Here is the input.
Amino acid sequence: MEGEFSAPPCVLVTGASGFIGSALLPVLAQRFPGSVLAGARRGTPARTCDVAAIACDLDDPAQLAEALRGVNLVVHAAYGDAKAMPGQAENLVAAMTSAGAENLVTFSSIAVYGAREGLVTEDDEGVAPFDAYAEAKRRCETLFRHWSEAAPGRRVIALRPGIVYGAGSTLWIDKMAQRILSGGWGVFPRGNGFAALVHIDDLARQTLAACGLLTGGNREALPRFVALNAVGPESVEWNDYFQALAGALGQPPLRTWSPAELALRQALAVPAKILRRLSLDLLPQAALAPGAGELALFSLRAQYTGANAAQVLGFSPAIRLREGISLSGLKPPSPLS
Here is the structure.
């Protein structure tokens, strides 16, 4: 049948030692046994499974070419400095072109919509301002779209995840837990925006479904480029997320900060961070206060629909906040800690 592979596809996962990349390895290894390459610049995949590790530095074209030898499906999960992302994407598609690899699942972000609020679909344009991360993701999407349109056989599925959380999430689980346990966190006057949460296990299943489309018999019916919002089944406010984390950590409900207290803590955050860099952790709580960019995110009243993703991928994320938190490995600190 047209579009089917005569042999099992060889799948390269970039950024395989990171949070998302390492979570993808077990599900991909089960779907494509013996055919998954865990590509990473350094280190080894965080979750052990039946995959082969391979050096894959996106800043090294020669290494990329070697990593892509025999590969026909790339899952691009690498994450790094925003300034480097567009150049790394250019290196990746150049190497894919040389290798004849025509299938790509890549992770963009809901950040591409910028400050847009209300109900947000994939057809909606972004609204300025865009931070450096959002600009990088927008540039990468444009590059991948142009690459897919340059040859009829190429297909790209760009997943736009929301706030990806779960066990192993440094930013949204581990660091938030540190902030809460230190007493350096609360609920905020501007924390009533929507947290577009998606649990890592749901995102892994969405990725698997995307890979199935790109390696299945109906591949040719897909658009050359399709972007899909990857969000969970419910919209919760950020302050509710913070309270749920505090509860899972065995902490009392977080206290509401007044605008004056928030302003004071933000003012103290700058010198506190300078002292921390000098190994003088004299104001630990102040150093953990939310920054201006975080508060802007926490106040954004945007709801991103995942209806198109459910229709295209045939899978709807189902992990709600309570279950997601329970799967994230949070535990109350022991009395001796």
User: Anything to note?
Assistant: Residues 259-277 form the longest helix (19 residues). The chain has a mean pLDDT of 91.
